[in-house]
Design brief:
single chain, 242 residues, alpha/beta, Carbamate kinase, 8 helices, 9 strands, 17% strand, disordered N terminus
C-alpha cells in the first residue's frame, strides 16, 4: 500500500470496525459521551476526504454473550442480548455524527424498524453512494458469530477496499504483548500466518472470510488520535494482513 500525498485518500470505501470498549473511554464500561464525540470527529475528518465510510461496532462495553453464558444464561440468548448492545452503541455513534451534520443510517441485522433500517445490501450500498455514513448493528443477526466476523462479512458485501480494525494496541503482535514482553509487532503478515499462529486480533472465521475474498485488514491503535486518518491517507502504521 503506497502512501498518498496531498490529502488524497488511499481507499475509496472502508469499513471501520470499532470495539464496544472504544466507546467507553477510560472507564471500560458504558458509553462515554466525550469519547464518542471525539470518535465522531475523527470519522468526519475521514469522510471529508471523500471516502465512503461504513462502521461495525461491538457491544462489549455493555454486554457480552459469552459473559452471560458463564453466569448461566443460554448462549443463544446471551448472544442476542449482545447484539442489542451493539445497537445501543450504534445509536450513540449516530447521534454524535449527526451533531456534526453528518447524514447517517443505522442498519440492523435484527429488524427493529422504529430505530434502524433492516439490512438490505443494495440499500446499504446506495446510502454509501449518496455520501451517508452507514453503521451496521446487531452483528450478523446470528448467535455464535462475533462482530469481527460481521465486519468481514459487511466489508465484503459493500465492496470495501479495506477493513480497518481499531484496537487498543499498535497492531498485530507475535504474542499477547500484555502477557509476553518478548512479543514483537508484525508490520505485515498473510492471512495464513495469522490463522496458523492463532493471532487473536480477529477470530479465525473473520480471517478466513477476508482471505477468501482478498479483503486486506489494517490493524492499528485507536488510542493514538488521528490514526484513522493516517491509515486512510495511506500511512503505513500498525499492521496489514493480506
Amino acid at each position: 500500500m503506497a502512501k498518498t500525498s496531498g490529502g488524497t485518500p488511499a481507499f475509496r470505501r472502508i469499513l471501520l470496525k470499532l470495539s464496544g470498549e472504544a466507546l467507553a473511554g477510560g472507564g471500560g464500561f458504558g458509553i462515554d459521551g466525550g469519547t464518542v464525540a471525539d470518535l465522531a470527529e475523527q470519522i468526519r475528518e475521514v469522510h471529508a476526504l471523500g471516502v465512503s465510510v461504513a462502521l461495525v461496532v461491538g457491544g462489549g462495553n455493555l454486554y457480552r454473550g459469552l459473559q452471560g453464558a458463564e453466569h448461566g444464561i443460554d448462549r443463544v440468548t446471551g448472544d442476542h442480548m449482545g447484539m442489542l448492545a451493539t445497537v445501543m452503541n450504534a445509536l450513540a455513534l449516530q447521534d454524535a455524527l449527526e451533531k456534526l451534520d453528518m447524514t447517517t443510517r443505522v442498519v440492523s441485522a435484527i429488524e427493529m424498524r422504529q430505530i434502524a433500517e433492516p439490512f438490505i445490501r443494495r440499500r446499504a450500498v446506495r446510502h454509501l453512494e449518496k455520501g451517508r455514513i452507514v453503521i451496521f448493528a446487531a452483528g450478523t443477526g446470528n448467535p455464535y458469530f462475533t462482530t469481527d466476523t460481521a465486519a468481514a462479512l459487511r466489508a465484503t458485501e459493500i465492496g470495501a477496499d479495506a477493513l480497518l480494525k481499531a484496537t487498543q494496541v499498535d497492531g498485530v503482535y507475535s504474542a499477547d504483548p500484555a502477557k509476553d514482553k518478548s512479543a514483537v509487532l508484525l508490520p505485515e503478515l498473510t492471512y495464513q500466518e495469522a490463522l496458523q499462529h492463532q493471532l487473536k486480533v480477529m477470530d479465525s472465521t473473520a480471517f478466513s472470510l477476508c482471505m477468501d475474498n482478498k479483503m486486506p485488514i489494517l490493524v492499528f491503535n485507536l488510542a493514538r488520535r488521528g490514526n484513522i486518518l493516517r491509515v486512510v491517507s495511506g500511512e503505513h502504521i500498525g499492521s496489514i494482513v493480506r
